[in-house]
Design a protein that fits this description.
With 73 residues, this protein is mainly alpha-helical. It is built from 3 helices and no strands. The protein has one domain.
Length: 73
Amino acid sequence: MKDKTVKINKKDIVDFLDKLNSEYLKIHKTYEDLFWVSYMGDNSIDDKFKKAKSKLNEFRSNRALAEQTNVFF
């Protein structure tokens, strides 16, 4: 029987987390900025806000990212 243990180096984990955090920060900041503009009554950006919210939800539910996280942790 072959050993199915995958050797993972610390740098790969750090690089993955850095990329994940960087992407999430960018997506969330866009969403957050548009949220407050819309919340304060400027509905001219509602389409952008809806797209930003959709992109944030897509990121949060990305199966590939979840699977990669499970590999590392």
